[in-house]
């Protein structure tokens, strides 16, 4: 049974792109806010547009939250909280601007230092607030600046034109900032959703494939061991066939007892070619009397993967059982050859043969227990049958 992925890990994986985009946006906003904040701070140090008792509180109330926001954005800690505080602090400074500049005798012809922070406030809102609030902040900050600045400089034509142009520039740039943030976040969410759907589809397909593989394995186990043993016991009429039925029943009980451990497939540890040959001899002799087995193992045959060897032995066992059950074991002989490149096992009898087209789809003796088993380990099985008998050839070739 597959293990379930923890919910927090699954969520983090599904939001991978979104988290990366948020991190990139944080760094970009931190860099831009830091540059604009430094420029504004240098201008604010020598500013005389606001009265003396307002100067220090405004600088502390604006640049302390701004500095904390830059640190939070760069470190990725408390980003929303610090950004929200900074956005509100700049808006509060704009609201206090008419009072801060009231009574000042300094000329107000140049842009005030707070003008450089208009889009910093918009960017901070983009990092802290929902989209609807971000859009409102894009409009609210320039409008607030326009009202505060006109209160300071008056309503003469030149001043109005200059202030409206400055506010329009801030409005346009703020809209671009919010739009880019929304686009990047939407793309990130779309990518994460697509990845999540693909992973879920793959998991569903893998689960279905595993279920199908388990069904085939259980069907093969039932046919190889249980059903074959029952059929052999029911048809046994001679001591030779009785011995075969007993051996098959013992094998069926062993494999059923170890089904959960996948014992039927054996380990992946490689075995020597001579060991494979002995296993094939034992499979041919178990319960089948004296079956002639010819073995030819070359000196450089080397080792064979454990699952391949197990598949060859099980397929041989099934082929021998078929020959005994359906051909009475007449002329049954097994030939084993192992070389440097290939391993081949030939099981032949001199029975009456059978008609392959007449074999039902639910019969797994040849189709599942021999052909499919060899194909599963990269080998192949060939079956030739006729009136002169049936020959099954199992072959496996080492990958080049």
Write a short abstract of this structure.
Keywords: ATP-binding, Kinase, Membrane, Nucleotide-binding, Transferase, Transmembrane, Transmembrane helix, Two-component regulatory system. The chain has 400 residues and is an alpha+beta fold. It contains eleven helices and seven strands.
Count up the domains. Answer: 2
Provide the succession of SSEs.
HHHHHHHHEHEEHEEHEE
The overall average pLDDT, rounded, is 80
Task: Characterize the biggest β-sheet.
Answer: 5 strands, mixed
Biggest sheet strand order reads 2-4-5-7-6
* Terminal Cα span: 35 Å
Gyration radius (Cα, Å) is 41 Å
Q: Assign a percent range to the helix content.
A: 55-70%
Structural class: alpha+beta
The tally of helices reads 11
Q: What share of the residues does DSSP label as strand, in percent?
A: 5-15%
Low-confidence stretches: 1-10
From the spread of the alpha carbons, the general shape counts as: rod-shaped
GO molecular function: ATP binding
InterPro entries: HATPase_C_sf (IPR036890), Sensor_HK_TwoCompSys (IPR050482)
Protein name: ATP-binding protein
Transmembrane segments: 24-42, 54-74, 81-100, 120-147, 159-184
């Amino acid at each position: 049974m597959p293990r379930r992925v923890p919910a927090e890990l699954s969520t983090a994986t599904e939001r991978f792109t979104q988290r990366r985009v948020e991190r990139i946006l944080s760094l970009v906003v931190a860099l831009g806010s830091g540059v604009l904040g430094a420029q504004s701070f240098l201008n604010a140090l020598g500013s005389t547009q606001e009265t003396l008792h307002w100067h220090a509180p405004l600088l502390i109330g604006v640049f302390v939250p701004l500095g904390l926001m830059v640190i939070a954005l760069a470190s990725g800690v408390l980003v929303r909280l610090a950004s929200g505080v900074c956005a509100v602090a700049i808006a509060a400074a704009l609201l206090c601007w008419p009072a801060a500049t009231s009574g000042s005798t300094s000329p107000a012809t140049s842009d005030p230092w707070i003008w450089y922070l208009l889009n910093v406030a918009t960017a901070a809102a983009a990092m802290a607030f929902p989209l609807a609030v971000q859009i409102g902040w894009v409009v609210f900050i320039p409008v607030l600046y326009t009202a505060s600045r006109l209160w300071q400089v008056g309503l003469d034509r030149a001043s109005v034109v200059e202030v409206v142009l400055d506010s329009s520039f801030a409005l346009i740039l703020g809209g671009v900032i919010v739009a880019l943030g929304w686009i990047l976040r939407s793309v990130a969410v779309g990518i994460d959703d697509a990845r999540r759907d693909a992973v879920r589809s793959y998991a569903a397909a893998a689960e279905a494939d595993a279920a199908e593989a388990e069904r085939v394995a259980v069907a093969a186990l039932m046919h190889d061991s249980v059903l074959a043993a029952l059929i052999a016991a029911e048809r046994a009429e001679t001591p030779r066939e009785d011995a075969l039925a007993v051996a098959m029943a013992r094998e069926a009980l062993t494999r059923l007892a170890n089904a959960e451990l996948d014992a039927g497939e054996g380990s992946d540890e490689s075995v020597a070619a001579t060991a494979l040959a002995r296993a094939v001899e034992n499979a041919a002799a178990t319960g089948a009397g004296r079956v002639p087995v010819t073995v030819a193992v070359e000196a450089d045959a080397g080792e064979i993967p454990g699952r391949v060897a197990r598949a060859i032995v099980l397929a041989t066992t099934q082929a021998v059982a078929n020959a005994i059950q359906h051909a009475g074991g007449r002329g049954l002989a097994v030939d084993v050859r192992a070389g440097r490149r290939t391993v081949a096992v030939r099981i032949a009898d001199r029975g009456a043969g059978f008609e392959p087209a007449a074999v039902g789809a639910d019969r797994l003796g040849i189709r599942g227990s021999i052909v499919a088993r060899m194909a599963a380990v990269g080998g192949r099985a060939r079956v030739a049958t006729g009136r002169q008998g049936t020959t099954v050839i199992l072959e496996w070739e080492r990958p080049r």
